[in-house]
Amino acid sequence: MKTDQSQSLFARAQQLIPGGVNSPVRACKSVGCDPLFVKKAAGSKIQDVDGNEFLDFVCSWGPMILGHNHPAVVEAIEKTLRDGTSFGAPCPLEVELAELVINALPSVEKVRFVSSGTEATMSAIRLARGYTGRNVVVKFDGCYHGHADSFLVKAGSGVITLGIPGSPGVPADIVKNTISIPYNNPEILEKTLRDTKLDIACVIIEPVAGNMGVVAPNPGFLQTLRTLTTELGIVLIFDEVITGLRLALGGAQEYYGVMPDLTCLGKIIGGGLPVGAYGGTRELMDTISPVGPVYQAGTLSGNPLAMAAGAATMRQLAQPGFYAALEEKSARFAQGMTMLAEKYLPGQTTLNRVGSMMTAFFTSGPVVDFDSAMQADTARYGQHFRQMQEQGIWLAPSQFEALFISAAQSEGELATALEKTECSFKKLAK
Ligand code: PMP
């Protein structure tokens, strides 16, 4: 595979941008290679600057559920663009997307748009703290909620990938207000939440974890969390930045039938443009400025292009049968992966899948929390990543991320991806 252009751009980028990248995992360090620079993408395919083409299973880390440059999304952006790109004043598209989001997500009565998932989660915990008058945030080991100070405690995603426990620059005074507990452990959860000395404002969870690789909630875990937080007057926040509009139009809350008090969104609701959102009950959301005292603002919040891309995406997702078709494709693909793993790497892999998000962990498993995810053989994942890249398959450059199926991938392309997986697994077995 020719990579001259990418290499030359990476050399330049490293002089100008820390590590040559604007988000750490993109540097591909943990899989032992340099990043490829992308020229363009369309549908299920992504093309690098050297002209290599790949079948994309990263989907920009989740947003591109329709594939890249979906005609309806492009048309909406182009149409909106002609009338200006940012107003700093309310515009009709914000109302349109708010209606779509509120109609889709069962627990959301009011929503506020921001510009990233990080802003959404950061604002949601401020709201929970302001509303309850308490300080402590409970999160789960291996979950990632963006890079705000309070969340960089036993966090997932790049924080695991780069092997750092937290982050310098986050004051101990802030970290002391974050408690991180194991995912899927109802006993520790109950003990923690019932400890009245702790002054707990909220619990934030990825209802399906995607940032330690995909880890599903054990049956009943989310219900237990809901029951306990209701009883104890603790605000329950679902971080649906990945799962929102991915598992169902109504996200994980619809999928599992468990309603949080607040929901954080991002990725898909922006249709590939920078968006985040947080929403919830009318009572909670009316605590936000300018109605209530909890302050939160944004120059580009409700950006018309992002609103247009999000609304166009949501209209596609709302078409009858969309999620059933995606589930069927994802299930077939996962079945193929499992068969190959059993044939070539028996007892050495665990496939976790919920809907169109999945992770093949290189460990005998089961993978149910951060500690079990950490058993995965990351060197083996690195080898698999490189072997797949060589064969034109674009995977996440870390074991601790999700593989996403998009509506743009054809059955034929998924079959091809399985053939390439077979070649890679055969080599790994040697
Ligand atoms: N929450 C979750 C569950 C995420 O996966 C991410 C990003 N991967 C974030 C929050 C942060 O979103 P952003 O990168 O847009 O700030």
UniProtKB/TrEMBL annotation:
Task: Output the CDD domains linked to this UniProt entry.
Answer: OAT_like
Instruction: Work out whether the entry's keyword set contains Electron transport.
Output: no
For this protein, the record's Pfam families field holds: Aminotran_3
Q: Which domain of life is it from?
A: Bacteria
Q: Which pathway is this protein engaged in?
A: Porphyrin-containing compound metabolism; protoporphyrin-IX biosynthesis; 5-aminolevulinate from L-glutamyl-tRNA(Glu): step 2/2
What cofactor(s) does the depicted protein rely on?
Answer: pyridoxal 5'-phosphate
Task: Name the family.
Answer: Belongs to the class-III pyridoxal-phosphate-dependent aminotransferase family. HemL subfamily.
What is the protein name stated in its UniProt record? Glutamate-1-semialdehyde 2,1-aminomutase
Q: Which gene specifies this protein's sequence?
A: hemL
